[in-house]
Structures are given as C-alpha cells and as structure tokens.
C-alpha cells in the first residue's frame, strides 16, 4: 500500500504517432478533444498508452483485457477506469485488513464504543455500531472525496463531463508523509504496479470474505479457515488410527455464533 502515498512524478512513455514522448500522467495531446469525448482515439495510440501504464505483470506480459473493453474506449475512458481501479483497490486493502482485525478485536474494550458489545462475523458489525460513529465517518469520507474530485476531475461542463484533468496522474493525491515514493521513474512505476496488484488481490479477497460469511452465517473467517485445517488433520489422523486398529478421533464440529 506504500504507493498510495505517491507524490507527483510523471513516467515517460514510448513515442507515438507524432514522434513525441509524453508523460503517462498527461492526456495525449495528439488526440483531438472530439476524439476523446466520442471514444474515437487511434488504436495504436490507445494500445501504446495502455502498455505505458503500471499494472502489466506476469503471467500476463501484455495488456490483460479478455473482454476487449479497451477496443472501443478512448484514452480518457482508460484513464477514468484506472483511477477507479486504484481507488477501489485502496478501499479493498483497508477493508480486508479491517475485516480481519475487527473480528479479532470483537468483545474487547479496544474496539469502538469501548464496551465490548460488538460480536460475531464482520458482516454483522455494521448493525451493531452505535450512534456517534457514522456521522463523523461520513463527514470524513465526504471531505476526502471532495479533495480527490477537486484534484483530479475536470469541471463537468461541455465535453469535460466525467473526465479527469489532462495533467492529473491517476491515483496521485500528493500524499506521501513518509517519503516512500521513489524519484526514479522505473522504480516508481514498479511500486505503482505492486500497489495495483495488491489492490486487485484485496478486491478478490474482500469479496471472498463476504461471500464466505454469507454462505456460513455465524462463522468468522479465521474460524472457517482453522476448522478446515483441523478437519484435514483429524481425517489424516483417523486413517493412521484405522490402520493401527485404534479408536478414531471424532471429526470436529463447526460451531456458529449463538449455537
């Protein structure tokens, strides 16, 4: 998650149709505004721009787009999608950590409200939080989003509706209090790729967490994980005990909260 605190640094991309190098943080100036607005960008420029962005990684050594979404997209579309991917990835990384930590701190005075009254799987914590938490949280989220919009999004007039500013670096909010962002372009690009990959994994992980707890109501993520491990160990032990003519160890029972 280190690169979510990157400061402004532009990466130069390969030459495109005009023979000029432009930074990936900027919208290619060789595409007319009308082309950007209507999605008629030249295919070679679009593919070159995609390949210049962070996020291409093994085992996919080229642009991974099995649905062909970029085939008819403008570069502005691609920039907007990348901004969305980075933002959702960061939220998912925080959510995945919060999901696990929240379940470990339940029943503890360390948890919010300081009364240890929030219990059970994380998907049910939302309903248990008392008044006085959500109001400041919503205000904080609103302030953060307002700042992000003012920094990266164009004023929604004319053909600038729902588009990023031409000089905005996707995901760069100028927040790097620890000075972790490399100044060397290739190192910075590598760090951004790591952030994207971690965000992609986190989006899959948090979806899996939620679906697992919906499928097994009352069972927390680690309870489910360790139950499966314990069950496999007991089954292996039973095979040995059966061969030796010994009494078999009972298979553990997964207990849900409230059972």
TrEMBL record:
Annotated chlorophyll a binding sites: 70, 85, 88, 194-195, 198, 200, 212
Sequence intervals crossing the membrane: none
Q: Which GO terms describe its biological process?
A: nonphotochemical quenching; photosynthesis, light harvesting; response to high light intensity; response to photooxidative stress
Coiled-coil annotated residue ranges, if any? none
Where along the chain is chlorophyll b bound? Answer: 49, 90
Question: What is the protein's membrane topology class?
Answer: Multi-pass membrane protein
Task: Say which domain of life the source belongs to.
Answer: Eukaryota
Q: Name one Pfam family in it.
A: Chloroa_b-bind
Q: Which GO terms describe its cellular component?
A: chloroplast thylakoid membrane; photosystem I; photosystem II
This molecule's function is given as:
The light-harvesting complex (LHC) functions as a light receptor, it captures and delivers excitation energy to photosystems with which it is closely associated.
The protein's name in its UniProt record: Chlorophyll a-b binding protein, chloroplastic
Name the source organism.
Answer: Haematococcus lacustris
Lineage runs: Eukaryota, Viridiplantae, Chlorophyta, core chlorophytes, Chlorophyceae
Gene field: LhcsR
């Amino acid at each position: 998650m280190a690169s979510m605190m990157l400061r402004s640094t532009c990466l130069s991309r390969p030459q495109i149709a005009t023979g000029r190098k432009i930074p990936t943080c900027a919208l290619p100036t060789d595409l007319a505004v009308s082309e950007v607005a209507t999605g008629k960008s030249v295919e070679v420029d679009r593919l070159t721009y995609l390949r210049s962005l962070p996020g291409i990684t093994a085992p996919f050594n080229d642009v991974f787009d099995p649905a062909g979404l970029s085939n008819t997209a403008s570069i502005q579309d691609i920039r907007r999608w990348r901004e969305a991917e980075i933002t959702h990835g960061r939220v998912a990384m925080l959510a995945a950590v919060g999901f696990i930590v929240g379940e470990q701190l339940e029943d503890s005075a360390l948890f919010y409200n300081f009364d240890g009254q929030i219990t059970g799987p994380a998907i049910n914590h939302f309903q248990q939080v008392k008044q006085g938490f959500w109001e400041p949280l919503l205000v904080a989220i609103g302030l953060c989003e307002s700042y992000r919009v003012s920094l990266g999004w164009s004023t929604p007039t004319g053909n600038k509706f729902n588009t990023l500013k031409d000089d905005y670096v996707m995901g760069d909010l100028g927040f790097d209090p620890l000075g972790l962002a490399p100044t060397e372009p290739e190192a910075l690009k590598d760090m951004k790729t790591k952030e994207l990959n971690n965000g992609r994994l986190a989006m899959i992980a948090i979806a899996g967490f939620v679906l697992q707890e919906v499928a097994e109501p009352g069972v927390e993520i680690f309870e489910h994980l360790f139950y499966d491990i314990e069950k496999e160990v007991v089954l292996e032990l039973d095979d040995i005990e059966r061969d030796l003519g010994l009494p078999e160890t009972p298979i553990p029972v997964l207990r849900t909260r409230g059972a």
